[in-house]
UniProtKB/TrEMBL annotation:
Keywords: Metal-binding, Oxidoreductase, Pyruvate. Transmembrane segments: none annotated. Pfam families: TPP_enzyme_C. GO terms for molecular function: indolepyruvate ferredoxin oxidoreductase activity; metal ion binding; thiamine pyrophosphate binding. CDD domains: TPP_IOR_alpha, TPP_PYR_PFOR_IOR-alpha_like. This is Indolepyruvate ferredoxin oxidoreductase. Residues 441-583 form the Thiamine pyrophosphate enzyme TPP-binding domain. It comes from Bradyrhizobium pachyrhizi. Gene3D superfamilies: 3.40.50.970. GO terms for biological process: small molecule metabolic process. Coiled coil: none annotated.
Length: 713
């Protein structure tokens, strides 16, 4: 089961016309898709739109009733390719994935789709994973839209607006025969709110109302000479049609203010941040009314020239608020204003930083710079400056009180994670065979590159650990050890990594971490889970797939068996000349396992049944306080506490109550011949008569021995 279940929330997707829908951004998007009459939906999970894929999966009964096909895709390329259904047929569809990395994976299909053009509305909902909460490369989706000439919507984060923009997207797509992309930033995906719903619409063509005969149109094939015509169509027909639609349907919004000789033009997605920053310096009220006129671009590509000109014409200065780089929108607006012969001074990245998320404090600094440069009439520049200064003083004071920067908190593996012992083993085996280059991959295991393991020299993309090793492997003295999760394996790694490695007869070691899910994105099911998102069993198996493409050297080791893992790694590393050696490290994701087992154990305890929980601990009198166990583990429950011995000052290691009893700390201590201070305890709830009797006997014996010790002492 994925990390979050939306079984209750999806009931709201049935609400009808005039009813109020309350919930999260991603649920609102789903409802808007149903109201738009889509025939098919799909996607590949990734922050911040993982939960959108989960919502669609949890809503599969309703989707079925409406005749909507749902596909949980192998990767983003597969998801984008689904939109081909709308090239020849007037059917609407939507797919979702994260950007920018997911959009990169999808780029081939997006280019082909954009060139062929569509007759049915096609929407790509991208999670714009940019800024301080992001997990990936800092790039924008804007370039993807402009280079393929597909339209980019960036709705103001308000659920009614988001729903409206989804519905308009399909109309825009159909009016301009072009797929549309809608970017949702991290915070917008998880924004809660309400909107007035309308009825879900059944599509005229769907799996409940099938297409009688296929359409063939050679002009829709992406091959020359059609591709030459398609490029001309993009420029001469589709682009102007999109501009007209955006203008006529008033996709962008103007909010008047009182200081009319200045204004802000912003990406729609920036609106909430801008308003709260303005409010903090007294330039917006508590209801979100700005005193500075605003042009909010819910469509950031294409721009509507006359809208921009009309907004700017009577103003002496305008600030463009555009997050990330390069400053595409600002440069386009400068060109438009210059071509129109308008004298307005356009500011942007000269006041705001070129890179990084525009959080409140960043915006306030930028507004300050803009107001100083533009000197709007009627605004008491002193009062704004005073507000800005008091805000900046507070920040400075907070920094002083902290006395220094806060310690960094790199992400790490969860308590009991089956990947931790594998990284401990990889660290330990290098003491025996020498240092190896480790080619890391995307997934939870990418945290193996950070403290305390620091195992992993490069990361090149999802499922690309093995593929990225082959440029270097023939030049390395020792084999490269590549890492791949089962998520990455099915997303990309089987073909680009494994098959290609065998085909080229490359040398190397692959450690395949099989935890059963796409864990980092929220435990979505993958072929090696054993069932799909609808819980239909699947009989797909990594080992069979490996053998199918010609891998013969395969060893499966339980993830927590560090001694065995070291032996297997050593064997694989030393088997030079044997091609690809694969070690499958098998151990279910502990987070998923705990989510399943904890409620079951709690229910058994409640029923009065006997339940045993294993917990590890450190004998504080034996611990020397050198903390080598912590350096080889990084388990969040393995921490320190004051040394109870008044003669020793080093804090001792300590296992807190979060321990799930995976046994890694003890195994590591044993494999590394570290120290004998780890013990394993069994915590018995609802003990039986036998348990109590055994406990009494043990207690009596221990007390007897302790008394003897005191006598001897
Ligand atoms: O969900 C995330 O944060 C990820 O980075 C995972 C991910 C999903 N699709 C991808 C495509 C390329 C690289 C990473 C991912």
């Amino acid at each position: 089961m994925p990390e979050r279940s939306f079984h209750e929330e999806v009931q709201q997707l049935r609400v009808g016309k005039g009813e109020v829908f309350e919930g999260e951004g991603i649920l609102a998007v789903t409802k808007a898709l149903l109201q738009s009459g889509v025939s098919y939906v799909g996607g590949y999970q990734g922050a911040p739109v993982s939960a959108l894929v989960d919502v669609l999966s949890d809503a599969h009964d309703l989707l079925d009733e409406l005749g909507i096909h749902l596909e949980t895709c192998a990767n983003e390329a597969g998801a984008a390719a689904m939109l081909s259904a709308s090239i020849n047929y007037p059917i609407r569809g939507a797919v979702t994935f994260k950007s920018i990395v997911g959009t990169n994976v999808a780029a081939d299909a997006i280019s082909n789709l954009a060139s062929a053009g569509v007759v049915g509305g096609s929407l790509i909902v991208v999670g714009e994973d940019y800024g301080e909460g992001s997990s990936i490369i800092q790039e924008r989706s804007h370039a993807i839209a402009t280079k393929s000439q597909i339209w980019l919507l960036d709705p103001r984060p308000d659920l009614q607006k988001v729903v409206d923009i989804v519905e308009r997207s399909f109309e825009l797509s159909e009016a301009s025969n072009t797929p549309v992309m809608m970017e949702l930033r991290i915070r917008a995906c998880h924004l809660s709110g309400r909107f007035e719903a309308s009825e879900n619409r059944r599509a005229p063509m769907s799996k409940r109302s099938v297409i009688e005969s296929p359409v063939f149109d050679k002009n829709r094939i992406s091959l020359p000479p059609a591709t030459y015509v398609q490029e001309k169509l993009k420029i001469d027909v589709r682009y102007p049609a999109a501009v007209d639609f955006v203008r006529e349907r008033k996709i962008n919004e103007v909010f008047p203010g009182e200081f009319n000789d200045i204004g802000f033009v912003m990406q729609g997605g920036m609106y909430n941040h801008v308003i709260s920053a303005l409010r903090a310096i007294g330039l917006a009220d508590d209801f979100g009314n700005s005193r500075i006129p605003l042009l909010v671009l819910n469509c950031v590509y294409p721009l509507v020239p006359d809208e921009i000109e009309d907004f700017c014409r009577d103003k002496k200065a305008v600030l463009v608020i555009e997050e990330g780089q390069p400053n595409y929108i600002e440069n386009d607006i400068k060109a438009l204003i210059s071509d129109a012969g308008i004298g307005t001074k356009i500011h942007g990245k000269n006041c705001l930083p070129m890179a990084g998320e525009y959080v409140g404090a960043v915006l306030i600094d930028g507004f300050d710079k803009f107001l100083v440069r533009s000197r709007p009439s009627g605004l008491d520049s002193k009062s704004a400056a005073v507000a800005v200064k008091s805000f900046q003083d507070n920040r400075r004071r907070a920094a002083e009180l902290l006395g220094g920067p806060l310690p960094g908190r790199p992400p790490g593996l969860c308590t009991g994670c089956p990947e931790r012992p594998v990284f401990s083993a990889l660290k330990l085996v290098q003491e025996q065979v020498g240092k190896v280059h480790v080619s890391a991959d995307v997934g939870c295991h990418s945290f193996g590159t950070l403290e305390p393991f620091k195992v992993g020299n490069t990361i090149l993309g999802y499922g690309l650990g093995l593929a990225s090793s082959v440029g270097l492997s023939s030049m390395m003295k020792r084999p490269i050890v590549s890492i791949m999760g089962d998520g990455g394996f099915w997303h990309q790694g089987l073909t680009t990594g494994v098959a290609n490695h065998i085909f080229n007869k490359d040398e190397g070691v692959l450690v395949l971490l099989k935890n059963g899910y796409a864990s980092a994105t929220g435990h979505q099911h993958i072929p090696s889970t054993g069932s799909n998102s609808r819980n239909q069993t699947s009989d797909m198996d990594i080992e069979k797939a490996l053998r199918g493409v010609g891998v013969t050297w395969i060893e499966t080791v339980g993830s927590y068996r560090i001694g065995r893992m070291i032996t297997a790694l050593k064997r694989a590393i030393l088997a030079q000349g044997k091609g690809l050696r694969v070690i499958i490290a098998e151990g279910e994701c502990m987070l998923a396992r705990q989510r399943r087992e904890k409620p079951a154990a709690a229910a058994r305890v409640k029923d009065g049944k006997r339940v045993i929980r294993t917990k590890y601990g450190v004998d504080e009198t034996t611990c020397t306080g050198d903390h080598s166990c912590i350096r080889l583990s990084g388990c969040p429950t393995l921490t320190v506490k004051s040394n109870p011995d008044p003669l020793r000052r080093n804090p001792v290691a300590y296992v807190n109550d979060g321990c799930v009893g995976c046994g890694n700390c003890g195994e590591v201590a044993h494999a590394a011949v570290l120290c004998p201070s780890f013990y394993r305890a069994e915590v018995i709830q609802n003990p039986t008569f036998l348990d109590r009797t055994a406990e009494r006997i043990r207690g009596t014996f221990i007390r007897f021995m302790q008394q003897r010790q005191r006598v001897v002492a």
